Amino acid sequence: MEITSVESFPVEIPLESPVSFSNRTITYRDHAITYVRTDEGVEGVGYSLGYEGAHLIADAVEDMLEPLLVGEDPRDTERLWRKMFDGNVQIGRQGILLRAISSVDIALWDAKAKAAGQPLYKLLGGYADAVPAYASGGYYRDDKGHEGLRAEMQRYLDEGHDIVKMKVGRRSVAEEVERVEAVRDEIGPDRTLLLDANGVWSSANEAIRACRAFEPYDPYFIEEPVMIDKVQAMAELNEAIAYPVATGELEGTRYNFARLYDDGAANVLQADATVCGGITEWLKIAHHAAAYDIELAPHYNWNLHASLVGSIENGLFVEYFYRDMDVKVFDDIVENPLSPDDTGSIPLPQEPGHGVQLDKDALETFRPA
């Protein structure tokens, strides 16, 4: 089997109204979509969230990666990952080029699993047939007060979730404590509450002050309390508070994740296969973490990450966004998106490949002119 072409292009899906987290407001979501096609008619698809740069990721795929891949066997995922990474190491160790590699690698694994006639999670290890999912939300909108926040969380409980996540850090510590208190009161003492600050605090001291104020409400973790490169600050916070730091959604490659382990910066890792280098690299991160008894709870992309979490022994849970909350909208271009059942778990797809089939008519609708 040989790769005959690699195609990549951006899509932009608008939100119905602007939504904010601690340090940013967004009006649309863009993704880079990548197809790897072969001479035997097997087609693999990959993708990555663009953060307004999906067109740059797509250009990197076609300009920098396709020439390295045409004529290669798509099943040689280990060798092709190294070829893509080493072949662009001067400009591609992080950021746009690594997201491009990620989208291609995901497509290669999709093709590989299809060629093997196996669901991806079975091909990778088959640890579980369903994985727990938490309901992610608690974003900021201009017209959303405490009652709106409570109603959102109650909706997640009604759907069957025992784990919910909310954003923190956009407002003063006192105001954020009130928001966290309201959510804890709404969900009760026995359910799991996750907090996400999106790197808003500038120092360990500032993060420690805020996170200690949340301690009475028993958070399970605080996600991205400071920017991802402030590993020492994360380590100081992780040591100083009564609940752990989680991080990694913007981190790339096993080498950076190894530093997080070694420096004691996080107890939960959130490696995103669309960011860190694809499935090939995600597996290395996960298996290395298992040696430290560290669990993975990947960021976003549940349609893919459910299968990855279901393939390893140290998977914790996956992040899920309800489409009508108008925060993550990728399901608009997925033919049969995964969703939790009434127990808050996601059954894994059983068809060959990773199971993420994209609606080509919808892709055309959302391609920029």
From TrEMBL:
UniProt key word Protein transport: no
Annotated GO biological process: amino acid catabolic process; carbohydrate catabolic process
Keywords, in A-Z order: Magnesium, Metal-binding
Residues of the Mandelate racemase/muconate lactonizing enzyme C-terminal domain: 146-244
InterPro entries, alphabetized: Enolase-like_C_sf, Enolase-like_N, Enolase_C-like, Mandel_Rmase/mucon_lact_enz_CS, Mandelate_racemase_C, Mandelate_racemase_N_dom, RHMD-like
Entries under PROSITE patterns matching the protein: MR_MLE_1
The keyword Metal-binding belongs to this UniProt entry's keyword annotation: yes
PANTHER family found in the cross-reference section: ENOLASE SUPERFAMILY, MANDELATE RACEMASE, MITOCHONDRIAL ENOLASE SUPERFAMILY MEMBER 1
Protein name: L-alanine-DL-glutamate epimerase
Annotated source species: Natronorubrum sediminis
